[in-house]
Amino acid sequence: MPAFFPEGTIFEVARAAGREFTRLSSSGEMAIQCPRAENHRHNDAHPSCRLNSEKNTWFCDPCGRGGGVAELAGLLGVDLSTITGTKIPDASMPKARPRASAKRVLHFVSNGPVSANTQLWFRNSLSKAYTAEAWRALGVEEGTIDDQLAIAFPLPSGGYKVCLYRRPDPKRRKPYTFWFADGGKTDLLLVGDGNEVLLVAGEWDMLAALSAGINCVATGTGGEGAWKVEWSKQLAGKRVLITYDVDPTGHAGTQMVVEALQGFAREVYAVRLPLSGDIETDGKDLSDFLAVAGPEGLRALLEETRQKGPIPAAAKSADQEPKGPASIPSRLAEIEQILKFVPADANEAFKLSVFARLLPILAALDPVAQDLAAKQVKTKLGISMAAIRKEIEAAGSRSSQESRSTPEETEISEESRALLRDPNLVRRFLDDTTTLGVVGEARNKVNLLLAMTSRRCEKPMNVVVKGESAAGKNHVAEGVASCFPVADVVRATNLSPQALSYWDGDLCHRILLICEVEGADRAEYTLRVLQSEGNLTVYYVTKVGGELKTIEKTVKGPAATITTTTRDSLHPENETRLVEIAIDESEEQTRRIIEFQKQQRMKGADPEQAAVIRDMWRGAQAALETVPVIIPFAELITFPTKQVRARRDFPKLMTLVEVSAFLHQFQRERMEVGGRSYIVADIRDYALAYDLVHGFLERVQSGLSDREVGVLSALEVAASEKLSARDVASRLGWYQDAGRKRAKRCLEGLQDKNFIGGTEPKPGTATLYWFKTAPSEAESGITTPEQLAAALLARGGHLPTTWTSPLSRGD
Known about the structure:
Blueprint: H1 9-16, E1 22-23, E2 30-32, E3 49-52, E4 57-60, E5 65-68, H2 69-76, H3 116-125, H4 132-137, E6 141-145, E7 148-154, E8 160-169, E9 174-181, E10 196-200, H5 203-211, E11 216-218, H6 229-234, E12 239-243, H7 248-261, E13 267-270, H8 286-308, H9 327-340, H10 348-363, H11 367-381, H12 385-404, H13 414-420, H14 425-435, H15 442-453, E14 462-466, H16 473-481, E15 489-492, E16 510-514, H17 524-533, E17 536-544, E18 547-555, E19 559-565, H18 572-575, E20 579-582, H19 587-603, H20 607-623, E21 629-630, H21 646-663, E22 670-673, E23 676-680, H22 683-702, H23 706-717, H24 725-732, H25 736-752, E24 756-758, E25 769-771, H26 785-794
Parallel strand pairs: 10-11, 10-12, 12-13, 14-19, 14-20, 15-16, 16-19, 21-23
Antiparallel strand pairs: 1-2, 2-3, 3-4, 4-5, 6-7, 7-8, 8-9, 17-18, 22-23, 24-25
Helix pairs in contact: 1-2, 5-8, 7-10, 9-10, 9-11, 10-11, 10-12, 13-20, 15-16, 21-22, 23-24, 23-25, 24-25
């Protein structure tokens, strides 16, 4: 077992780095500025990285990261040998957060020799590619953490990759890896100073190459589409060899990385492993190849790849070409040519790799040509039509989403990134949209901000903005939409019944803004299907080669739909799918608008300032990473269940929580679940979501609209007095004939629901109404943020310093 660091070593590391100490008033603990703040991971203007001298651990509340002495020393650039001790104790693991321990750094470095226990693991679990002698010669060190074997592998830049072993995997000739830990840095950021680097998809492939003495890092992409621009910058000027798995994702990943490295790497090579792709026989990845060919075989393969020459700069890809009739024959010819060279006895792995190559071409065809080509693929590769169509749909969805978020379309400035790290992000949005001319309407603007941001989520929000003519509902919706990437907003004012079904392109992760839903009445059904199902599929008949054929066309979603209307109510089936927000029609809001208009006339508008604001927010939206959100406190939230519509209303609340966390992702903790990274929502997100919709959700349980609630309150205040529609309109400040008609509609609705009584209608005589009963007491309401805070504290959790909704605070 390794020796423990002397108590207080964590403070010595901070002092050696020149860090200033601050005592936290809330807990009395000593804190320093988080070392990750310097890498723009998050804002830590007020030091909040807590140090524990007894356990020699550190933990930062804002970013949720922590660890022991060795990691802090590595992040701060401190040589541990200049302080004391050289080993990391078991206590470096943050005991207070066991569920998140797999995320924490467990750099384990021991000076002792490789033990007999470790050699036994190597001998029993690993092939000749993983010999204890080879790794020991490279400086590999070992020990135990929580009674499990821990081995630290040196990386090219000098850091370590630490893993814990549990059991061997008999199929893959390698141990089961519990986790790898690298100080939170991507392997590619530890690439070192060599002129050549080998990229592989998996951690074990990287370690196998390192044991063979080859400079190698694991990118973790392998076709998953997770490549980042900063990774390309790390490889600037280097010769890069890519060796991903022999399967469709590896093939697609290679193509994607080759394109991403154009203009950065000096030369790019694609290394083709001579494997079948079947893990039951000769395997599919680099470690499988090394197990058979050994280090010399790998060196020979790399030299052979170099001799063939680098991949030339990519020409315009198929999915970037215009979708015109002239391009269709050339694409069909290309597909036929590729299929021509598939041997009759080709194995499944080879066929799948060919299919992966064909996918971008298939996705770029029109439906008729696509159908013809798909039949050729089915015949030659033996893949079902259903599977082909499904993969084409997925490829088209990814392509359209990625093409809209490229830097060429939406510039991501440092101001945009800084904006996403600002704790006052919501207040900034309110102030900036006011500058753009959207005055007041704070809750409505934030509701629309989150609804439009939800376009990036699996289940986007759908919102209806209600208000009278000239109230400004379209102005508010358009003002918020102007802060989103132009390519992500689709505007419509008039839709025919089949307009959405035959949409040219797709609506995947876009905002469908329909100003005045009355113009989309005929498309009401298709709009409802899009909101519920996320996609629209239509079958139509056309002639193909002189024969009538039934063609399937799918408009891909999901999309966030924003509609505006002057109506008090919409189709009942549409209403349950929507979050309703009402424009502020008060006299005070009218005064604010007129005052703003006066100031504009006196000072003049500043179009340059408006453009800067819009570009900053558009860049911020483009900078958001597509990472799912997890809500760890969801089980603590109570919600009324008597009404069936609660099945749709509860997800609306949860979606708002998720979108708030997604928007604040650079200020939220991350968590690994099942090997996938998640943004962790916290009470700040719930407080904002609750503030936005709890009133709406409570009203819809009673079956009343905002206006009906106001009319019922006016009658209740009048007590036994009977009022006409004109009287009610006057008391509510609804003037002119439009106000009377609005009051009349509400009164008739309330009478139908038996909340009020009314005299018998008579020609020439105004109907009089009176209050009868208030809505019945709702069942136990939605959990308040205060109740959630108490529940979290009772469960041993901790709360951010400020967690109330920015709409409720005076900041």
